[in-house]
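Sample 1 of the test manifest.
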Amino acid sequence: DAMVIQNPRYQVTQFGKPVTLSCSQTLNHNVMYWYQQKSSQAPKLLFHYYDKDFNNEADTPDNFQSRRPNTSFCFLDIRSPGLGDAAMYLCATSRTGNTEAFFGQGTRLTVV
Amino acid sequence: GDSVTQMEGPVTLSEEAFLTINCTYTATGYPSLFWYVQYPGEGLQLLLKATKADDKGSNKGFEATYRKETTSFHLEKGSVQVSDSAVYFCALSDSNYQLIWGAGTKLIIKP
């Protein structure tokens, strides 16, 4: 089945130690999103790509960066995780103009 | 700017009860409207959607009708099950095709 896959499902990292979360998709969608979600609150958009064009939300901290080497893969890099960055990170995809978004299972990040 | 307001939870019901979760929106233009569901520890799944006024989205016994006159998209189900326990998010897509989310409503179904 075509899908959005996030790895790992659970990630524990040390305070200040860089961490990378990954997302892959087999839907061939041109738009990919990264969201942060805390405690079943509404997801907060961090950034998104239209094809290779990167769009950063104004309030996304500089500590968060992203890479999209090709259509299928997208990475979220947290350069120096703080305790406040502990959250569920959700990757999603869609097609331009088709507003339905498909989500991965999420990565639960714990910072110790 | 565009916004979505949904009823606060948690909503606690007994199995086989009727469910309504209210959702209203403010938007320019004619957004598409969505209900997403999130089961514990999982990502978000699209439950249903409607793309224009008077459309009814339906899936797994859930329904919601796009009401332009009341700017609403209330979620309903005639008979809930324990397995419906989850957090439900109402959302709209804005003119830039970005999703605007409601705060989420936690639903608890007791046997």
